[in-house]
Amino acid sequence: MSGWIYLAITIASTVIAQIAFKRHYITKRYLDLMVAIGLFCLAVPFTFLAAHQMGIGRVYISTALSYVLTPIAARFAFGEYLGLRQWGALTLIVAGVIVYNV
């Protein structure tokens, strides 16, 4: 598999795990906690595989996208508000990842 696919799995599992963890905090459902822990554990080997193929610098910088995707996912999952400053910060993070990877 491509390093980019490993990286995508890492980022997706991290984002979904963070959403599941917050959902557990809100609902106290044990299943949400188990999903969060499982996905956090899943992210570790895929991060290693991505770093092995792409280099740690590129993977480390690219995982910053989880800081972009998590608030967006929380907006849809929990109705959280994202103001203009937050959108500006998310845009800067994406721009930084793009600049580093180009």
From TrEMBL:
<feature type="transmembrane region" description="Helical">
    <location>
        <begin position="33"/>
        <end position="52"/>
    </location>
</feature>
<keyword id="KW-0472">Membrane</keyword>
<feature type="transmembrane region" description="Helical">
    <location>
        <begin position="84"/>
        <end position="101"/>
    </location>
</feature>
<keyword id="KW-0813">Transport</keyword>
<dbReference type="GO" id="GO:0005886">
    <property type="term" value="C:plasma membrane"/>
</dbReference>
<keyword id="KW-0812">Transmembrane</keyword>
<dbReference type="InterPro" id="IPR000390">
    <property type="entry name" value="Small_drug/metabolite_transptr"/>
</dbReference>
<keyword id="KW-1003">Cell membrane</keyword>
<comment type="similarity">
    <text>Belongs to the drug/metabolite transporter (DMT) superfamily. Small multidrug resistance (SMR) (TC 2.A.7.1) family.</text>
</comment>
<dbReference type="GO" id="GO:0022857">
    <property type="term" value="F:transmembrane transporter activity"/>
</dbReference>
<protein>
    <submittedName>
        <fullName>Multidrug transporter EmrE-like cation transporter</fullName>
    </submittedName>
</protein>
<keyword id="KW-1133">Transmembrane helix</keyword>
<dbReference type="InterPro" id="IPR037185">
    <property type="entry name" value="EmrE-like"/>
</dbReference>
